[in-house]
Specification:
By secondary structure, this protein is of the alpha+beta class. The protein has a single domain (27-142), classed as OB fold (Dihydrolipoamide Acetyltransferase, E2P), CATH 2.40.50. It contains two helices and six strands. Strand 1 and strand 2 (61-77) form a beta hairpin. The longest helix has 19 residues, at 2-20.
């Protein structure tokens, strides 16, 4: 009977402890899966960012909507004539999360860094990270310093 109580207690502890975690499991996206699910895949350099009047929460993290413009240097998938793309993503509002939770990519056009962008066209016509907004770094990958 004692082992039955231990099992029940262990089960309850697992459910309680996982309910306290801010994030959830992160899907392990392969490059092929990202490529297949993307509407547009490009290599580009950010040229500007514009914070939008879009405030919400992802998980417990307050975020603000941002649109970042990229000059495209290579089109991997999509319209080969693409020269610029605007990406809708989110940045943490206020202090960054210290613990588990969503991670965000912040772009500094002055750094002249290059990124590989796996993008999905949204219903409103904008492009967003293919793997979703919660962990945008999966889709918006820095490839140079």
């Amino acid at each position: 009977m004692k082992s039955g109580h231990s099992f029940i207690l262990s089960t309850v502890l697992v459910f309680v402890s996982t309910g306290l975690v801010n994030g959830g499991p992160v899907h392990k996206w392969s490059d092929k899966e990202l490529l297949d699910k993307s509407s547009l895949v490009v290599v580009g350099t950010p040229t500007g960012t514009a914070e939008k009047e879009e405030h919400t929460k992802l998980g417990r993290q307050p975020v603000v909507g941002v649109e970042t413009t990229f000059d495209v240097t290579e089109v991997v998938k999509g319209d080969p004539a693409t020269k610029t793309v605007i990406v809708h993503h989110y940045e943490a509002e206020g202090q960054e999360n210290d613990g588990p939770g969503p991670t965000f990519v912040r772009f500094d056009p002055d750094e002249k860094a290059t990124f590989r962008l796996f993008l999905a066209r949204q219903p409103d016509g904008r492009f967003a990270p293919t793997a979703g907004q919660m962990d945008s770094g999966i889709s918006l990958r820095r490839i140079t310093k």
